[in-house]
């Protein structure tokens, strides 16, 4: 049983989704507030393992954006979706069933600001986003309004709860996949994130909440090692939410259009534009400064953003992956036949230093 910390005063806030009875609003609000208190108490002092800075401003407002949000994607009626092992329902423990012919994978990069790509992004069958990246408050014209899948790091859960009215209540058709270290996801009552995800799903039972199993997490680690030659633990590396999102997209999607991801050598160009790490934090850290700092970091744990993008560029030589805003293509290389790893039904093969191809 999850123990709740009872606040001293009452709570109030905007109403929840239309299908929640008015009489239950205050109870739901209170449970949400309890959940935030539990998470704050348990997470305080823990090391941040993923995601970007928690601060920043979402200064623009546009009330019409919220009403325009729609998470319903075109339905593929040709065949039932395949079972994807490794993504487990938080309540029923059943595996995820999902397939998309085309996907827009939307990063959180400042390169998306002013892009006007929103309609283009929303035309894909599925739209994939990361952590608490917003679509309301005027951002929809650049990043789209729909969300089919949201991949969330355990360290971003607190920010998602704070933005619950936008990200949760208006997202009844969205699939949420949370990832985190096994100590936070354990099911014996001691997993902080797991416990709070179950509570959240009890408060909003229509939410489609999944976690990445520890077996799948080990596969992601092994895939990183095989693709880069680096052991994640020995090199003090934390896989980024971008890594998980791209590999999950390979499981789900036939074609992937990635928006806002730069080429691996982008930050080496002294003429590269300065953009914020997150489009919704315009005064936040510079994207390239963040990438370079993490890539060179040796003390403590760091994301290897540039290394990951080098891997993605290799995958794009084989799979139907395309990059926009900025637009770029990976260099062509000669195919080979050494198996490096597997993602879903896609087998990644290549010679040493060579590209990947489907087999």
UniProtKB/TrEMBL annotation:
Name used for this protein in its record: Uncharacterized protein
Organism listed in the record: Dallia pectoralis
